[in-house]
Amino acid sequence: MDPRRVLTFRAVAHERSFSAAARTLALTQPAVSQQVAALETEVGARLLDREPGGLKLTTAGRILLEHADALADTLTLATTQLEEHNNAERGRLRIGAFSSSLAALVPETVRRLRDAYPDAEVLVQEGDSLALAERVKTGELHLSVAFQDAALARREHEGLTRHDILREPFLVALPPDHALSGKPTVALEELADAPWSAASTDGLIARACRAAGFEPRIVSITRDPIAIREFVARGTAVTLVPRLLKPGMPGLAFAKIVNGPQRDLYVLTPPGGRHPLVEPTLQALIEVASATG
């Protein structure tokens, strides 16, 4: 297949209009129509149907659009990597990371990286794991640190390589004067009546509580480790904390959880043309996770 025709078809498919796609591509409408018609001849199937409400993808069109989007992502990444290869930004490494990894893994990783490569410049940006993955795909980030609930199906990210670095258990974090403080292990159902702090109403903490047979009464929704520690320390909430965060939360009581939840930490990297500091950073992350986990 002619990749230019595939990308032209992609524009039409997303715009649902030959004329709108022509404006986006700076082409004439007849030229766009001719390219899509030639592509349909090439693949031996209709890709678009004209309907009163506009264009509609056929089954073959939906299949091809998925590959066309992947092709566009690959070309965008290639453009970014080639531009970096030829400019002065080559030394700057851009890392994406979710909030709690910034409080545990990433700072020590960056310190080790700078010790080994004194001239390297590192930029770390916080974000949601899924949003950061998209930025790695486009080359905006060189790698990202991500996590997922280990109880869910393994999450793969099309077009990216996943490197698993740690499976981490959660602990219960309690106020120091809580009735369960001092117990080495607790069952979540013992906290069914407690107020909870969580990152969301449907995330890992909520799922763990529901699996234990109760709906958590969430009184604080935040991902900020400092805010979480303060809510728990002042006796206004309990929560679940990844083990890596325990050293950064002094003044709280912690306990292991009977059949408690776990999360998988992993790193996402793009294909080809990786920044030269990606591999040393990945190795440093693995070493830090192993030492602290």
Automatic annotation (TrEMBL):
UniProt cross-references to PROSITE patterns, sorted A to Z: HTH_LYSR
InterPro entries (alphabetical): LysR_HTH_N, LysR_subst-bd, WH-like_DNA-bd_sf, WH_DNA-bd_sf
Keyword annotations from UniProtKB, A to Z: DNA-binding, Transcription, Transcription regulation
GO molecular function: DNA binding; DNA-binding transcription factor activity
UniProt superkingdom: Bacteria
Transmembrane regions listed in the UniProt entry: none
Domain HTH lysR-type: 1-58
One GO CC term on file: protein-DNA complex
Similarity comment text for this entry: Belongs to the LysR transcriptional regulatory family.
Protein name as catalogued: LysR family transcriptional regulator
Organism from which the protein derives: Solirubrobacter ginsenosidimutans
Lineage, opening ranks: Bacteria, Bacillati, Actinomycetota, Thermoleophilia, Solirubrobacterales
